[in-house]
Amino acid sequence: MITLVKAEFLRITRSMRWVAAIAVMACALWAVLQVVLFIKPETVDERAVESAYSMAQQGYMFVMILGILLVTSEYRHRTITWAFLVTPRRGRVITAKLVASSAIGLAVGLLAALVTGPLVAILLSAYDYPVWTPDIPAVLLGSVLSTGLWCLFGAGAGALIRNMVAAITVAFVWVFYAEWALVMLVPAVGRWTPTGVGKAASGWNRDALGAFAPAGDLLPVWAGALLMIGYAVAAAVAARLITVRRDVT
Predict the structure, then answer these.
(1) Three-class SS of residue 135?
(2) Among residues of the chain, what percentage have pLDDT more than 90?
(3) 249 lies in some domain
(4) Where are the transmembrane segments (predicted)?
(5) Is residue 59 one of the residues assigned to a domain?
């Protein structure tokens, strides 16, 4: 298994470095844009400052697409066939891909936090806002964890759908249309959706920044993190079980 995971890391670092770099920059730029658009003088307090630092997680869509690409690119270019021929136990191959994807997601989240943190601090100081609270390290850690789980979630979705365009389309439709429509119809569901759970895990506060978000209070940070892990693991387990039972083509 360790050899398979190393092989996945080698494949990703050699062939998909540009995708990971784009994901990092997209997360950072999106975070800064969110802070510029939504932070308001009348709402600035400790919660607002902490939520500003959690904005790196708001680029979760880019990270989920990264996870999808890490898996579906192998089906698109048919290299998955050779992987299964070399290692006939498909479950081990898929597990290695999921482990590598989650690690790459954590690395992207860490880099995004390192890029976003100083930028957010500069923006806050330019507005004469406080730039630090005791809970900010926990917020940054939650953002990194949430980003890694979104990448794992995307990899699981990619293994389930396999077609690159279809998988990305489904992800977009769910995040930007289906999930929001569901939350508008049943506001209480917002705290349990993957997006709401991811925001909760990163310590994001919708009221602090006055941003548009799923209605209703979010879960506590620890509950959001546990449920996000549950969603990601469920997607990974489903991907492993289904991949073992169907044709590659």
Answers:
(1) coil
(2) 3
(3) no
(4) 18-39, 59-77, 98-124, 136-153, 165-189, 221-242
(5) yes
